[in-house]
Amino acid sequence: MPTVEFNTSELVELTGIKDINFLRERIPMLGVDLESIDSEKAIMEIFPNRPDMLCIEGFSRALRNFSGVKKEVGIYEVKEEKEDAERKIFVDKSVKTIRPFISSAIVKNLTITDARLKSLMNIQEKLHITHGRNRKKVAIGIHNSDVVKFPVTYKSVKPTEYKFVPLNFDNLMDLDEILKIHPKGITYGKIISEFDKFPLLVDVNNNTISMPPIINAERTKVTAETKNLFIEVTGTNRYAVEKALAIVVCTLADMGGEIYNVSIKLKH
């Protein structure tokens, strides 16, 4: 089971429960293996069937409901605006036998502090390891949506015929080079290396967004100054993909973000 560590002060703020002894008593009742809790941090193991509790926002939501602090129906509003008509991802038939499923959303008007950015990256990796089976089943890409121009295309390309600058790198690399040189390519390359073509997500201007499930593009990098996010989840199981998207989007909504729809359109 994955182990998570939450800041106790933040847990108190999000749950409204100030009594640490009460937390110590109630947390195990959620089916969580509480290792320790003090005034600084809470360490616990989360069961695999509750990936929504891998982040402090999701865990706090569950604890608030269970403890009767605040009953929440779990319904999040998806807002509408005129740009919705343009927000489409066209899925090319070339990904059908490689990594066929994708789901997506936009979350706007966030205040992303360094702490929140760290928390977001943490939940992303926890979901990759557990729910996503080390990215084989599910992989999550989180991007600065302000640089993404819709519609987007999800397709596969020959690895030596396409180049982009991967996250935290400065130079253009083809997809083969990314698998051989980039740390994420070395770690996760085996997921797609057996195929003749690799998955790629590009915007209407043919700018690369990501190479699922390996790495995002440097140009869509999220920083503490980013306000609007584009989230894309790809994988081999539709239910797992949609569940991962829901967890990430609800977490961002709990941080104060506004959710907007991205339509998925099959080209075939």
Automatic annotation (TrEMBL):
Its subcellular locations are:
Cytoplasm
In its UniProt record, a GO molecular function of this protein is:
phenylalanine-tRNA ligase activity
Q: What EC number(s) does this enzyme carry? A: 6.1.1.20
Instruction: Tell me which residues make up the B3/B4 tRNA-binding domain.
Output: 98-257
Q: Which UniProt keywords apply?
A: Aminoacyl-tRNA synthetase, ATP-binding, Cytoplasm, Ligase, Magnesium, Metal-binding, Nucleotide-binding, Protein biosynthesis
Q: Name one GO cellular component term.
A: phenylalanine-tRNA ligase complex
Bilayer-spanning residue ranges: none
Please provide the Gene Ontology terms (biological process) for this protein. phenylalanyl-tRNA aminoacylation
**Cell membrane found in the keyword field:** no
InterPro entries per record: B3/B4_tRNA-bd, Phe-tRNA-ligase_IIc_bsu, Phe-tRNA-synth_IIc_bsu_arc_euk, Phe-tRNA_synthase-like_B3/B4
Q: What class of enzyme is it?
A: ligase
Q: Is Protein biosynthesis one of the keywords? A: yes
Return the similarity comment.
Belongs to the phenylalanyl-tRNA synthetase beta subunit family. Type 2 subfamily.
Q: What is this protein called?
A: Phenylalanine--tRNA ligase beta subunit
